[in-house]
Design goal:
6-stranded antiparallel beta sheet; disordered N terminus; 2 helices; binds fe (ii) ion; mainly beta; Jelly Rolls; 385 residues
Length: 385
């Protein structure tokens, strides 16, 4: 019975739209202008744009190998109650599966507090990069975290983990803005069953580059992972596809002020490179006008020049050499073959990837907006400030 219950529960989670979930180092701003040489092979006279498509109004964005999924959560939650939930009637929402964006926000799979209660993953990584707001993580290995406001969590699901991702609301007066990207990065077959783990990168550990090379101006680039000219971000878990520099994985948030300009250098790695231009933006990319809500695929062997013609905004860049393996996805599991997916269900039914030691499926971690992480090793870490 228990096994059957678990199986049905998992299927319910999947049917509920789990796919749509997704849907120090150093902190100083580095101005590389003085110490780095302009690359000799910068070209500006030919476009690097391969294609452009409109992004869907809601839900996940298209991605290319080695990425599996990307979603931008951008919710303006109302004021909160003492229990960190929205201080407003939730009637009229499809609680448990609310992706409505009614009044500018959604509850997702949350019943009381917005977010994604307990759900499993196997075979890939989730990278959650938060610009604004907080996320409470709890998992089947006893680990937990509260992070946000510039932090990133990089979770290697590997062999399997259950976790919850809830969005506690702290302001009882004003609104509670939540703005983050969740990106799924595939694992190669030889790493799909590695031990699950997560790394926290606090805001002051994420490199931020401001460069005035190549005519750059009014730009700040968060190099979550990847290389920029002679700078190499140290961020990537050891089993990640991103940890091998020849895979040239880059996740950058390019922040441009009005009239900002930035040149993305070319690479010989053969990486796929895509820009996600947020709704409301107005850009010029290699001389071509690009409106907001667009995904622009680039030829990474050519450099790309971005100019911001509109208000202050940001662009997400995802880049990486493809893994080039078969991808079989079923809900929260991403493997190479159908039989491996069946194995994942079998294993999940049997072990629940470590079970669930939390009292409820949607735990939050106290009423103070204090960041922490209790890692899978049991070690507790906090940001320095
Ligand atoms: Fe998740």
């Amino acid at each position: 019975m228990k096994s059957e219950y678990q199986r049905r529960r998992l299927l319910k989670i999947i049917a509920g739209g789990i796919l749509s979930i997704m849907g120090g180092l150093f902190s100083a701003t580095n101005n590389l202008a003085k110490s780095k040489q302009t690359r000799k092979n910068m070209k500006t006279n030919e476009t690097s744009i391969l294609s452009k498509i409109n992004l869907p109004e809601t839900g996940p964005w298209p991605t290319e190998d080695p990425f599996l999924f990307c979603v931008h959560h951008n919710d303006d939650y109302p004021a909160a109650k003492d229990d960190l939930s929205p201080n407003i009637l939730l009637s009229g929402r499809n609680l448990g599966n609310d992706f409505s964006n009614k009044d500018g926000w959604s509850m997702y799979h949350g019943q009381k507090i917005p977010g994604f209660p307990r759900h499993p993953h196997r075979g890939f990584e989730t990278l959650t990069v938060v610009s604004k707001g907080f996320i409470d993580h709890a998992d089947s290995l006893g680990a937990s975290a509260r992070y946000g406001d510039g932090d990133a969590q990089w979770l290697t699901a590997g062999d399997g983990i259950n976790h919850s991702e809830m969005f506690p609301l702290f302001s009882q007066n004003g609104n509670n803005k939540l703005d983050f990207f969740q990106i799924w990065l595939n694992l190669p077959s030889y790493n799909k069953r590695v031990e699950p783990n997560f790394e926290m990168y606090w805001e002051d550990e994420i490199p931020k580059i401001s460069s005035n090379l190549n005519g750059n101006k009014n730009v700040l680039v968060e190099i979550i992972t990847g290389d920029y000219l002679d700078f190499s971000s140290p961020i990537a878990p050891k089993n990640s596809w991103a940890s091998d520099k020849k895979n040239d994985v880059a996740v950058w948030i390019i922040r441009l002020d009005r009239n900002g300009k930035f040149a993305i250098p070319d690479t010989k790695s053969g990486a796929k490179r895509n820009l996600y231009v947020l709704k409301g933006s107005n850009m010029e990319i290699d001389g071509q006008n690009i409106s907001g809500g667009s995904m622009v695929s680039l030829d990474s062997s050519k450099n790309t020049v971005i100019k911001n013609l509109g208000r202050k905004t940001k662009i997400l860049m995802l880049q990486g050499v493809p893994i080039n393996e078969p991808v079989v996805k079923y809900g929260p599991f991403v493997m190479n073959t159908r039989s491996e997916i069946e194995q994942a269900f079998y294993d999940y039914n049997r072990t629940e990837f470590g079970g669930w030691k939390w009292g409820n499926s949607d735990p939050v971690h106290g009423t103070e907006p204090e960041k922490f992480a209790k890692l899978i090793s049991g070690k507790i870490i906090k940001p320095r400030k």
